[in-house]
Structures are given as structure tokens and as C-alpha cells.
Amino acid sequence: MTGAGPPPRLPSPLAEVDDERFARRGVRLLLKRDDLIHPDLVGNKWRKLAPNLAEARGRAIVTFGGAYSNHLRAAAAAGRLLGVPTIGVVRGDELAARPLNRSLRRCVADGMRLFFVDRSTYRSKREPEVLARVLDDAGAAGAYVVPEGGSNALAVRGCVELGRELRGRADVVAVACGTGGTLAGLAAGLDEGQRALGVAVLKGGFLSGEVEALQTGAFGGRRGVWEVTDRFHGGGYARVPAELDAFAQEFEQRHGLPVERLYVAKMLHALTVLTEEGAFAPGTTVAAVITGAPDAPEPSRSPSRSTSPAPPPQSSTSR
Ligand SMILES: *Cc1c(COP(=O)(O)O)cnc(C)c1O
């Protein structure tokens, strides 16, 4: 895969959907379709990575992730789209001797050079001496470092525009959170009277502190009105309980929206439960940020499948 492809679709579309679970409570539901920003680099990853790749100014970027990391794959795609060389430091040196999984094959197809490190080194990579040694060994000594998960001050500032695009459009904006970088920027971009709700997909209850630290790094202090709920992680990262999967399937059929399971499904489920619990007053407009899309099916080798799939169906748009 080479080439820049289409330009990003920004601002991303905003579409209202009709869902009786919300209507019954007098709540309007909008979908903020960040999954449509770019076919190869969806959602918040575009908003977070593009400013960092610009800042690299011609240097390679190096970043970090596990064997199934969405962030690594996004960084590789961003590098291809923006013409920036990428180096991925991957957790687990035992992986170096095995065939690459699908996620890592994609990274390589997008031009990322992979470097595998053992788990204990990987865990210690925030220590400056360890990082310096890893970068040296990876041949990335002069490279621009993007942290694991991609949330640094530039990434957070890149997500401010997401909030700005939603000014005057909703009372509550919900987003799924991994590192919390997207929430940190989104909340800062909203107007007075709007609030952001982060849905943690990881267990641990540490996210509020992270978001606060990210806002302090990016803006010098807390910004906007936001909160985090820790009730909807479904057992932790990458855990998709059967009921959550069923919920997501049903949502897909009902609204023609492909529902990414690790983040987006948990956020939509949270909004549905909270609405049914009466957490939003009648008359509230809730915008759900669709931060990503499910993986495309594995590319087949048959020539008939070599074109990209059609874009997902769009429901009635309020723009
Ligand atoms: C990476 C990712 C997130 C999490 O973003 P953070 O800024 O790390 O909180 C949310 N949704 C999807 C689909 C993602 O890929």
C-alpha cells in the first residue's frame, strides 16, 4: 500500500439516528462520524497523529505497542499517508521468530519497520536510559518519539477541533477512552453548557487522573466540563462479553452503522443503559463520537476483491 489516498473528511459528518430506547426518554441521539474521516486512518487516530507527524518535520517517527495495537497500526498508516518513515517497537521479543499476525502484517505493508523487545524492557521504556538504549538498538536514535497510545500534548490539542465541531450541536458528548487523550482534547473544545462523558474501556479507575494530567500538559490545567464512567469496560481491554457483542450486532442492524467492538460498542452500550436509567433529562441531545470502525475483512488474493469496499450506509444527516 502506498500513496496518500483521499484527503481527510473534516469536519466529520454528524447524523441523527432514530432509536426508541432514547426517544422514549425524550433524548435525541446523534452520531459524530469520526470513523468516516479517512478510510485508512479512522477517527481519533487521525486527529491525534497528524499533528505529531507534522511536528516530526521529515524525521522518522518511532512509537510503541503490543502485537494487536490499534495505535501501532494507525501510526503505520499515518506514516504512509503523510510520507513519514515509521518504526514500531513491539512488546514481546518471542514474536520476532514467529509469522506476523494480521495487525503487524498491516503495519509492515504500510512501511513500518518493526523492532521487537522483551516484555520487561518494554515495561521500563519510560525510564530515559532504557528508552535511549531501545531507540539505539532499533536504529531510531534520531527519531521523533510518539508515546504508546499516542496521547501527548500535540495529540490532545489535535482533538480540540472535535469539540469545536460539536459546539451548538449537543448537550452531552460521549467518547470511548483508552488513554483518555481524545476526551482531554474534546472537552477543551466544547462550549460552555456542554459536557463530555468518557467511557473507560480499561479496568482500573485511573483514567480521570490521566485525563487531568493530559489536559495540564496540553493546556496548563483542567479544561471544560467532563467526567469518566468506569462501569462499562465489560471486564477490561479487549474483553467483549457475549451480551455486549449482541448489543453491538443489534445496533448495527438497527442503524446500519458498523460498530467497532473494543471501544465504540462499550460507549454506545453505556449511553443506552444511562439513558434507560434516566441519567439524561428529557430534551437532552447526546452526541456519540464514533471513534473507529471494525477491521475490514482480510484482503483476499482474488482480483475481484482488490477494490475497496463501499462506504457504510449513512443515516439521515443533520448537516
Ligand atoms: C484508540 C481508540 C480510542 C481511544 O482513544 P484515547 O485517546 O486513547 O482515549 C477510542 N476509540 C477507538 C476506536 C480507538 O481506536
Automatic annotation (TrEMBL):
Cofactor(s) annotated in UniProt: pyridoxal 5'-phosphate
This protein's record includes keyword Ribosomal protein: no
Active site feature: S69
GO molecular function annotations of the record: D-cysteine desulfhydrase activity
Region (Disordered): 290-319
Biased composition annotated in UniProt, kind: Pro residues: 309-319
One Pfam entry name: PALP
Keywords in alphabetical order: Pyridoxal phosphate
InterPro entries the UniProt entry points to: ACCD_DCysDesulf, TrpB-like_PALP, TrpB-like_PALP_sf
The keyword NAD is annotated on this UniProt entry: no
An individual GO BP term: alpha-amino acid metabolic process
Domain called Tryptophan synthase beta chain-like PALP: residue spans: 21-292
Family, similarity comment: Belongs to the ACC deaminase/D-cysteine desulfhydrase family.
UniProt-recorded name of the protein: Pyridoxal-phosphate dependent enzyme
